[in-house]
């Protein structure tokens, strides 16, 4: 029969805590624990990009709430464009950093070469030539943001001349030329976000599948430690916290 908290002596409580802590330290040395921590780092890195992308979309929405922003030349419009450029730079920077860490093969794709070099262009140039467009049709009035490609094209040409063996620069130029007359930044980043999401999901699924046994064992052993701590009314926060354990069980049960 299980003891109630009232039936545990101080010595019993101390022994349970000592056993739980020892077990936790052992679990932290396992492959399952290392895998889970790697998933957390990967997830946090991706969510930095995702947060920036959501902020970009919100800023764009707020920008278009004012009907005059797309057509006037006011100081207010220029200020809000600067906000958009800042959000755009954050998206490009965080996504490129994420891909450089986890998805180098994707960087060989001409689309991602274009995004990477566009990021570099925004870093090395204090001015980004953002331009607002309003296209009126019988069905709708379409607003979108684009940018003057002349400066970016010159930038790429200069970089290609300086580094003729860097294939990524040539691929970026090829992609730029293919969309030269139809650059819609919202649609461009929306396409990019879909590819980022696809990679994130496939990476998580593959990683969980490869490390299934270690993660399942971590779940079981952590639940045992938590159970022993709950019996003595102690917070079950190691080797994984309760929220971490719930998240791990969620992604494992959803994927495997």
From TrEMBL:
Organism ancestry: Bacteria, Pseudomonadati, Bacteroidota, Flavobacteriia, Flavobacteriales
Stated name of the protein: Uncharacterized protein
Highest taxon above the source species: Bacteria
